[in-house]
Amino acid sequence: MRTVLTMTRPRPAKKPIVAALGGLLLLTAWLLRIAIADDAKAVATSRSRETDVAVALARNCLECHNTSDRKGGLDLTRREKASIGGDSGKALSLDDRDNSLLLKRIDAGEMPPKGRGKLSADERKLLSEWGNDRAI
Q1: Residue 72 scores a pLDDT above 90
Q2: What does the alpha-carbon distance between residue 56 and residue 14 come to, in Å, rounded to a whole number?
Q3: More exposed terminus of the chain, fewer Cβ within 10 Å: N or C?
C-alpha cells in the first residue's frame, strides 16, 4: 500500500483591511435599515396627521364651506380651493401661517360660528400645529 501525501497550502489569514471593510459594510446596511424605518414612520405619522386634519375640517367646517354652499365664498373641500379663499381673501397661505385667515379665525374662536359646536382643544391644537409646520 502506497501512501500519498498531498500538500495543501494553508489559507492566508484575512487581511485586516478586508475584515474592516466587511464590518463597515454590515454597519452601513444596519444604519440604512434604521434610516429607512425612521422615514417610513415619519411618512406614516405625516399621513395620519393629514388625515386627522381632514377629519377635523370635515367635521367642523364642510357643512357651510363646501362646493355647493360656499358660505362666505369659501370652499374648504380641497387644499387648492382653500388657498384661493373666499369673500374675505385667502383662507390658507401656503408659505405664511400668519396670513392664513382660516387659522386666524380658528385661533380667535370665531370659527366655527356661534350656535355650532366648537372645536375641541385637541382639534384646535392639531390645526394650529398643522399651520405652524407648513403642513398646509
Answers
A1: yes
A2: 62
A3: N
